[in-house]
Amino acid sequence: MNTVALSIGHSPRDGGAVMADGSQSEYQYWLEHAPKIKRILEQQYGISAVIVNRLVNGGGTTPGHAAAACNATDAILAVDLHFNSFEPASNGTETLCWYNSARGETAARHLQRAICECLGTRDRGIIYVCPDKRTEAIIASSGVRADSSRAVSYFQKTRMAAIMIEPCFGGSNPGECRLLQDRADALCAAIAQGIAGAVKAIAA
Predict the structure, then answer these.
(1) CATH no. for residue 195?
(2) Which domain holds residue 128?
(3) Count of domains observed in the chain
(4) % helix / strand / coil in the chain, to the nearest 5?
(5) How far is residue 62's CA from residue 58's CA, in Å, rounded to a whole number?
(6) Has residue 1 got a pLDDT over 80?
(7) What is residue 203's three-state secondary structure?
(8) Residue 112 · residue 95 · CB < 8 Å
(9) pLDDT tens-place string over residues 8-31
(10) Which pTM does this prediction carry?
């Protein structure tokens, strides 16, 4: 049976972004909802899921520790769970993958599509995480989004296909904060569906 690592974004120490209404941090939100994704994956899709916490399972609070926690599961796919925060008007869904990982890109496309369809959010596309500014400039010159400043060590150190999801700007946009709250169950189901499609594609 294929296994997926569900990595809860951030840690009990730093929490990550806080919802626009102040109710939950990224860590608190996904600590509550990741078990729903796990249950759906196992009951509906026959995919084993392991929930990991970068501090407890990886020994620290950095993205590299999240990678260590995921690697310990021997999973085929790692999914780091987050939500975005920037400005009140910022909106939409984006998914990150390593710039030269074909399996990571495949998984990212499955999750991006499933989340956008579920939440009805603007499709901000895939972000290709790069090891340095030079590579970022090369990748961006082809007309796609690239970033060498976000969670580089997570993507460098994971030994399986790895992605990071940012379903919406729940940390800064009040409307998208309500989406995370009101459609939490539907979002978990959509993430599970996207993961199932991704696993089927990358395991083929």
Answers:
(1) 3.40.630.40
(2) 3-203
(3) 1
(4) 45, 20, 35
(5) 9
(6) no
(7) helix
(8) yes
(9) 999 999 999 999 999 999 999 999
(10) 0.97
